[in-house]
Amino acid sequence: MAELLKIKREVEEFKKEYFYRNSQAEENRQREYQAANRIQSWFRASKVRAYLSHLHKKAIIIQRIWRGFTARARFRQMVKAAYFIMKMNFYEEMAVRIQKRWRGFFVRKYIHNYYARKSYLEGLSRKNELVRMELAELEELQKRERDCVEMVKEQTAKVYQAHRLHHLLSTKQCPGVFNSPFRPAPHEMELLLRQVKYQAPARLDPRGRACLMGMLGPTDPSFPGTLGSPWIKTTGTCSSKPILPPISSKKQQGLFRQPGEVWEQRMLCPDLTLRIQTSYTHLEEAQNQLRHKGTGSMLHHLSHSSNSFTQPAYAKSFR
User: Fold this and answer.
1) Which helix (H) or strand (E) element contains residue 281?
2) What is the pTM of this model?
3) Is the distance from CB of 132 to CB of 157 less than 8 angstroms?
4) How far is CA 108 from the centre of its chain?
5) 41, 214, 242, 272: which one has the fewest Cβ atoms less than 10 Å from its Cβ?
6) Which residues, including other chains, have CB under 8 Å from residue 203's CB and lie 6 or more apart?
7) How far apart are the C-alpha atoms of 115 and 236, rounded to whole Å?
8) Crossing angle, helix 188-195 and helix 114-164, to 10 degrees?
9) What pLDDT sits at residue 168?
10) What is the phi/psi pair of residue 200, to 5°?
11) Would you say residue 3 has pLDDT above 80?
């Protein structure tokens, strides 16, 4: 019985040893298999990489040869085109020189004479200079005349104003408007008032209202002492006595407004209103009249001068 148990123990140990050795052999076999796979993969990869490197080098050689061939062909074409352009430019320049020489010779010989044209232009320039000098002298003369006329107008306007404001001359009792005690010297208007003699104003007419406002018209005199003055009544005899304006009971305006403006405001008659001057059917009548007229008649009416134009009745009421 002891022998049997011993044999059983030995069999169990043998089984364990056998399993252990088989497992060790299997591990060694797997390890050797993996190492063989790694060696084979490395070798095959090295072989493929060497083959690909060889192919890459051969492709680079082929591409280099082809690119060099195409670049040399393109460069030959560029050189040929540049040479052709340079040759054409040279030929054109030579042709232009020949044409220039020939045209210059032809124009100088058959069309005009250079020296005659030069002398003509010189004479023309001298004549232009003379004309410019004459025009400059004429302009200067006209400017002097205008300045003289303006100066005369200003002087006559001042004299006219002095005639109108002669009642503002300073006296012993009243120092006057322009002769202020705060001035170191008399005002120029005060000196002018002393030089101008007083003239009594004439009866005013509607055309003399502009003169009262200080505006001289084209037909008005330079100052109230000549014929046609609104201050003097113009009759057949030059020795007619002036007619004074009516004495107003109201107090005159202050010195902040012109006397002529105040007198104009007082003597001005009120204009009639639009309602009194025109009828209530005036607008409809004008529209009907314009509607009946044709385009030709309207153009003919507009082409007339300003003298033939008649304003409507209501236009006179507007200032």
Assistant:
1) none
2) 0.29
3) no
4) 48
5) 41
6) 233, 243, 245
7) 75
8) 70
9) 77
10) -70, 135
11) yes
